[in-house]
Amino acid sequence: MPEPIRVYLLDDHDVVREGLKFLLEQQEDIVVVGESATATEAAARIPALRPDVAVLDARLPDGSGIEVCRTVRAIDPTINALILTSYDDDEALFAAIMAGAAGYVLKEIRSSDLVSAIRTVAAGRSLIDPAMTATVLDRIRNGPSTPDELASLTDQERILLGHIAEGLTNRQIAEQMFLAEKTVKNYVSSILAKLGLERRTQAAVLASKLLGQDQGPTGR
């Protein structure tokens, strides 16, 4: 008998997590090796348990499954991540691909399809449409040109700066970019330091002037 697929579950809703656990433990070839309700706990436990597949809720009170995916795969790229979300939007999918996720599925997926998705990801195959991956790569290569004043910023910082220009709070930016609020705060501090600014409002004014009202750093 082949070794069972080792799965880790991350979801802040106990009912959802217990439901997933019950579903998966009915499968002869799958075993749930761990679970958690917070991004912080998952980021610490997953690399130690080394599951074949980590099923990660996209939105969490203290961060996101996408951020956990990025953190875990930086430590152990053999761990495959499947992002499970209630939200269907391009920004989330873009973030998932950039984080190295092998799959991105909606929570309304049928139980049998979710089990199949886990088996597919465990086998090292991707569930993400190749056309979407190509779109993401094209977006990275041929994104809008960057003003000289912003050349010192990373792509992530430029995206975040655009949200600052839109007047979003750190919490709102964290939700938009699937990051922990603390991570956003650190990014803001880095942006201000790189631009030689002291206040967030100065960054917002500069970004609005350089990026224009109709085009942010994400090309929207």
Supply database-style keywords.
5-stranded parallel β-sheet; 220 residues; alpha/beta; 13% strand; disordered C terminus
Estimate percent helicity.
40-55%
Strand order of the largest sheet: 2-1-3-4-5
Q: What is the structural class? A: alpha/beta
Order of helices and strands: EHEHEHEHEHHHHHH
Strand content: 5-15%
- Largest sheet features: 5 strands, parallel
**What ranges have pLDDT less than 50 throughout 5 or more consecutive residues?**
213-220
Number of DSSP E strands: 5
Total helices: the number is: 10
CA gyration radius, whole angstroms: 19 Å
Mean pLDDT: 84
Give the CA-CA distance, first to last residue: 51 Å
Shape: elongated
Overall description:
- The protein has helices at 14-25, 39-49, 65-75, 90-99, 111-122, 130-141, 155-165, 170-177, 181-195, 200-211; strands at 5-10, 30-36, 53-57, 80-85, 103-106.
- With 220 residues, it is α/β, with parallel strands linked by helices.
- Helix 2 (39-49) runs parallel beside helix 3 (65-75) and helix 3 packs parallel to helix 4 (90-99).
- The longest helix has 15 residues, at 181-195.
SSE arrangement:
Layout lengths: L4 E6 L3 H12 L4 E7 L2 H11 L3 E5 L7 H11 L4 E6 L4 H10 L3 E4 L4 H12 L7 H12 L13 H11 L4 H8 L3 H15 L4 H12 L9
Parallel strand pairs: 1-2, 1-3, 3-4, 4-5
